[in-house]
Amino acid sequence: MNKQTTYAQLLETNNLIQNCGDETYWLCVTRTVQGSKLFPVSPYILLSYLNAFYRYPSLLRKIESRMRAEDIADRARNMGMKIQNSALGWALPNFYLLGRELLLSLGFLRPQDALEDVVCVMDFWKRYLLSWHRNDGHITNREYGHRAQILPDRRLEVFHSDMFPCEPGDPLHEAAHTALATASQYGFLVSCESRISLTNSGPYRLDDRHEMIVRDFMDLAECSLPWLDGIAKDVPYNYLTVPMAVRDCHFSLIDDWGSFESKPEFTAEHLVGVGLYTSDALSESFMPISMGSREELTSAFSSLNEVLKDATNKLWLRIAGWTRDQMIDAGALVYYNIIKDLAHVAGVFEVDDWLTIDRRAERFRPLFNDEFSDQFLGALVGSLSLPNHCQSPYTMMQHSDRPTRTYTPLPYSILAGEEYVPSCGPIQAGASHLEPKVDRYRTTAGVLTLEEYNRRAREFTPQLCSEKYRFLCETWTKYNHHTPLANELYELEQRQSRTLRGKGARVVRPG
Amino acid sequence: MNVTQLYVDSDRYGEPPANLLLDTVRSAVTDLVRRKLAASGGNWSEFVFSASDRLITTEDFLAIERQILASGYRFGWSAVISVRERPDLYKEAEAIGASLGAFSFEHPNAVVGPADNAGREQRGIGDNVVRRKDNVLGIARYVRSSEQVIDYMTRGVPAGTVAIIDDSGGTLTAPILESFAGIICAGGTVRSHLSILAREYGIPCLMNAKISGIRDGDSVEIETSAAAKTAEAYQRGEEVTARIWKLAR
C-alpha cells in the first residue's frame, strides 16, 4: 500500500484528469484547425509534450519551494503576465498529460508510472486555478460556461472609468484597432504559429448594450525567448493589457485557451472604448501607458504599431533563415515554457530549465517527421484512435458519445498493492539548436540581467498582495466598503488612475 | 512480468490505429521497447525511468526511419523547410519556389459551374469569415513560400491582390498579410489563426476553400457578402459556403 497517496487524492486527481480530457477534446475538435507552411507545427508540439512530461513535475516543485501555487495566482489576478489562459487554464496539465499519453501509447509507460508526478502536477494546477478564479468562484472557464471574470471590482472600476471612448473613423479607434491587429500578428509569429502570446478575460458587463473584455499580449520585448534578442530591443513593454469596451456585441464564449466568440461576430465597428496598460512580476499593479489624454493614447498606439510591425518583419526574416531543427526547438520551447512566468514571479527562472530540450525527449526527434506527427497529434487530441484511448463498449464519451477517453486515469490498484514507480526523476541535461539567450530581460523596472530580475522578484511583493490586503475579497468589500481599510485598499488600486485617484471605495461604479 | 511483454500489450479494449503509418510506427516503437526491456533484464521498475533512458537512443529511432524508407515509403510534408532539408524523406514538392508555372490548387470536391451572364465562372467554394456588404474582386496570386514573401516584401504587394494560400496559420505571410485585398485559404476554419488575423485586420477572407482551375494572375471574385460560417454550423456539420468565381478577362 502506498503511504504517500491516499484514495481521496487519487479520486480527486482522476476527476481533474477527466475534466481536462473532456475539455481538450472539445477545444481541439471545435475550436481550431491549423496548418503551417512555415513551421513544422505538429513535430514541435509532440516534442514539447514530451519535454513537459519529463520536466514539469521537477520544475513545479522547484517553484513551490519558493512560492505556493495559490500565492502566485493571487499575483496573476492583479496583472497581465503569461500565467493566465491558455498557459495555466489549459496548457499546464494538458501538455503534461498529453506527454504521458504519448508515452503510454508507445509502451514507454504504464498508467501507474510517475504517479506522484501526476498527482503533483494536477494538485498544483487545481490550487492555482481556484485562486486565480477566486472572484468568479470556478476552477476553469469551462466550469463557468466558458467565461472568465478574473479581475477584482476595484480594478474593473479603474479600467472602466479611465478608458477613452472611441468610434469607427476617429483617430483613436483607427490607431487602437490597427495596433491590436499588428500585436496579434506579431504574437502568432513570436509564438511560432501558436496563439499563446494572446489571451482574453471577461466578459464584464458595463450596461445593457456594452461589455468589456480585457486582452493581454505577452512576450513582446526582449524576454525569456531567445529569438527576440536584438530584434525586439525597441519594443518598450513585454506585456500589454488592453481593456476594450464593445457595443451591441455579446461575448458568448471565452474558453480556457483565452479565445473568444461573440454574437454578432466581433469586428472593429463594435469597439467603442479602449485603454492601455503594462505590468509584470515587478510592478505594483497595472501601470497605465499614455493614458493622460486621448491624443497621448492615440499616439502611443500608433507608435506601438510601428515598433511591432518592424519587429515582425525582422523576426520573420530571422525565422525564414532557420533550419528545421531550429524551428522545431523554438516551437517546442515556446509551447513547453508557456508556464515559465511562474518561475519569473517566484524568482527562480533558469535558462537551462526552460530553454532546453531534455535529452529524454530529444531522442524521439527522428520519429517526428511531418506526416507521422500530423497523424499522431490528430490521434492524440482529435480522433482518440490509439489503443490507450479505447474504453469499454458501454462508454459514451462527453461530446462524442464514442467509447473513448482522452486521458488514462491513475489506477486505484496501487492502493491494493500494485507496484508503481512514483516519479520520472529530476530534469536531465538538455540542449537547443538556437542561439544562446542573451542576458537581457525587459521589465517594468528596466532592462535587467536574469540574476537581477530573479533577485528583485524574490524580494518584491505588491502591496495589494501583502498580508494586510490579500484576503480583503469582494465579499468583504461588499459589506465593509464604508471602512477606512476598504478606502485604503481602493486608493492603492487607484494610485495611477486618471479619473479615480484618491476616491477610495466611495464610488460604486463609474459612468 | 514476462520480459517480452509490455504492460500495455494486455489491453481488453485497445484496437490498433486504423491509420497504417501510425500503426506501423507504433508497432516498431513498442517492439523496440520490448527488446530493450528484455536486454536490460526485464525488471520494469528499473527500466521505466532509468535503464530505458540510457538504452533507447536517437539512433534507435533513426533505425525505424531507415526501415520505413527502405520499404519505399515517403512521408507527406506540411512545412516547406521539411521537404527542402530532407527531399529523400518526403514526397516530391510542387510549386514551393519563386516560380509557380501553371500550378493551381485542384480540390476533388471543388464546386464548379459554367459562366453566368456576367461572365463569372464558378471555380469553388469556401467558408466566409465575416459577412460584408460587397463581394471582393481582385487578381489571384498564390503565396506558398518564403521566397515569394521576401519578393513581395521587397517589391510590395500589387494592389488588388487576392492571395491564395494553404497556410491556415498565417505566419508564412505575416509581413505582407495586411496588404492583401482578399484571402482564399485552402485549409483551416473560420476559427484558425489566419481567420483571426483577417478579422482583426478587416481583410475579406474565405477559409477551407475547395477550388479548381484558378491560376496565378486570374481575375477572381469572392462572395464575401455570403453568410459567415459559425461555430455552431461546424458542430452541426452544416454546409454554409461562399462562392468563388473566375472572371472573364
Written description of the protein model:
The complex is a heterodimer of chains A (511) and B (249). Chain A has 16 helices and 13 strands. The longest helix of chain A has 27 residues, at 294-320. A five-stranded antiparallel sheet of chain A has the order 1-7-4-3-2, sandwiched between helices. Chain A is globular and about 65 Å long. Chain A has helices at residues 7-30, 41-64, 69-76, 87-105, 115-132, 153-162, 171-190, 294-320, 324-336, 341-346, 351-354, 359-362, 370-383, 450-459, 474-480, 484-493; strands at 164-165, 198-205, 210-218, 239-247, 250-254, 260-263, 271-274, 277-278, 287-288, 357-358, 430-431, 441-443, 446-448. The model of chain A has no long low-confidence stretch (mean pLDDT 96). Chain A has 511 residues and is α+β, with helices and mostly antiparallel strands. Chain B is α/β, with parallel strands linked by helices and 249 residues long. Chain B folds into two domains: 3-73, no CATH class; 100-247, Phosphohistidine domain (Glucose Oxidase, domain 1). A seven-stranded mixed beta barrel of chain B has the order 1-5-4-3-2-6-7. In chain B, helix 1 (20-40) packs across helix 2 (44-55). The radius of gyration of chain B is 24 Å and the shape is elongated. Chain B starts with 19 loop residues before the first helix and ends with a strand. The mean pLDDT of chain B is 92. The interface between A and B is large, with 80 and 86 residues.
